[in-house]
Amino acid sequence: MLIEHIIKRAGGTEIPMPVAGGDDITYHFKPADGNFDSPHVAEVTYQPHIDRFLSIREGFKIPGTADWQPDPEPLPPQYTGLAAVDVDAMSNKWLFDYARDVMGIDGPAKPRLADKLKADFGVEMDYAVHTAADIVREHARHASLEDKASQDSERETDRQREQHAANAASEPADSEPQGERVKRKYTRREAVE
């Protein structure tokens, strides 16, 4: 199996791997076409080595697949349930804690805050006109709206499940699905003929 080493080095990368009861196998990850910018790959045939390389998601992958990205960090507990938060009533301290903890920006760096708002929600705010608190508040407002939409969607799914369960419970116990009735009638007719 061809495996790609995500980290590119001039001359490629040689990695020795142990084999139970035998000599080590050294894999040379290098571009197949000699072009440094091409994927650095090696043919790996020993299954334990394939498993080991692919278990290191930050360094190896199957060629042609997307690079591994770590799962996003969950929101700190004080920022979950933003739908219930009145963002306009939040203090500057809360907003700057939010900017640090959720947006990943410490301090009133208005250009970076505006860039983050645009990247996360597609909203542009001119940082020359607005304060850092305004930009963070707008980010929190959009996060709150997103949280509310998510909660509404979950409630609608729950409502549909409850409706389905109520419909299933209201059917008589001795009733059989329509498909089974048709099949049985057809089978009975065949038996008569």
Mean residue pLDDT: 80
Order of helices and strands: EEEEHEHHHH
Could you say how many structural domains there are in total? 2
Report how far the terminal alpha carbons are from each other: 60 Å
Question: Can you characterise this structure?
Answer:
- The chain is of the alpha+beta class and 193 residues long.
- The protein has two domains: 60 residues, no CATH class; 90 residues, no CATH class.
- The chain has five helices and five strands; from the N terminus they run ββββαβαααα.
- A five-stranded antiparallel sheet has the order 2-3-4-1-5, covered by helices on one side.
- It is flat.
- The N and C termini lie far apart (60 Å).
- About 7% of the residues have low confidence.
Keywords:
193 residues, five-stranded antiparallel sheet, 45% helix, flat
Brief sketch in words of this structure:
Helix 2 (92-103) crosses helix 4 and helix 3 (110-121) packs parallel to helix 4.
How is the topology of this model organized?
Blueprint: E1 2-5, E2 13-17, E3 25-31, E4 40-43, H1 47-55, E5 60-61, H2 92-103, H3 110-121, H4 132-170, H5 178-192
Helix pairs in contact: 2-4, 3-4
